[in-house]
Please model this.
Amino acid sequence: MSEPKFETLAIHAGAQPDPATGARATPIYQTTSFVFDDVDHAASLFGLQQFGNIYTRIMNPTQAVLEERVAALEGGTAALAVASGHAAQMIVFQALMRPGEEFVASRKLYGGSINQFGHAFKSFDWRVKWADPFDLADIEAQITEKTKAIFIESIANPGGVVLDIAAIAKIAHRHKLPLIVDNTMATPYLCRPLEHGADIVVHSLTKFMGGHGNSMGGVIVDGGSFDWSADDRYPMLSEPRPEYNGIVLHETFGNFAFAIACRVLGLRDLGPAISPFNAFMILTGIETLPLRMQRHCDNALTVAEHLQGHEQVAWVSYAGLPGDLSHERMQTYCPKGAGAVFTFGLKGGYEAGVKFVEALELFSHLANIGDTRSLVIHPASTTHRQLADDQKTAAGAGPDVVRLSIGIEEVSDIIADLDQALAKI
Ligand SMILES: *Cc1c(COP(=O)(O)O)cnc(C)c1O
Model:
């Protein structure tokens, strides 16, 4: 058989009928631990001489199918599934950073990531340097001899802007740094960052990958391309590990050493494992990812076009619209669609935003994206409430801004709900 296509991999990659029972769907291996064959087997598992299941914090057969599937969809060498998108980010940086070191991050990020990098990471003394992702000179200017990585989102929260991944990867590689891309908003169906020069991909599986708004999860994908031994900057990978009898991970595991480091040093010791049940739910979601994402994108474009022509709407920011700031980059990086999430402005400002959100019936008012259901939030009165007006505007959350995550309902029902709510402002 020729190399299976994306739609086929989304259903089959990593999965075989269960060897013990013949079960066709991947079973939920709801067990904490696994019996060793004998003492030698146990010793070789603990010493990393042999791969195998020991304890579900480190590895589990349901999680393993999820990992292999996402690695296949992203075109990576290996992956590690964890409890959430934030857990994935924490583990990636723990493998790269020592106290006092820095990384450069795009200012256009999911709000939770801005908090994690700007506040929580301070207690590890990992220092973020923010850069304007559309200003390549600014990105390069933030790099110092302490920098260990560059972090961006492919399609970036909250406005759905598309970044020039290849150009940012070039800057990273000129400075011998890995480029980490959060591909949550795009999913590998729309964009495969490793093909554009990224070295590591992370996801919140909680969003479009699981897709049904019912399970938290995250994943780290190793692109297999980065040379961790070029110098002494990444000792977790290039120096003998006391935890494992002096093994050098990059030497032993080659192009999937980063995924191994995240598992056997990060996940093992920090602990945010995904539950087998959530891994199963997310795997089930991924089987329909190509169908869902295309429908999300088609619906979002129809809704964006409709809003653009509405008299109460001041502006619409969606990369799928011709003339949008991100439209050209969208055609390079995600030609099948610009995703489901975008923002628009109400002419009536703050008051109109509050009334609009309250008048919607089909849309759910909540702080999430990437559900089958259509979702809405008015950032100025919720997630960004504590900021001053000028700070709100700088964060893309001005008083008039509404963010939508368009679901896969019949699009005429989505539009009818928006229209009736706009009529009530
Ligand atoms: C939700 C989200 C995260 C965080 O993921 P959790 O699963 O909620 O921890 C990170 N990045 C982006 C782009 C997200 O949307």
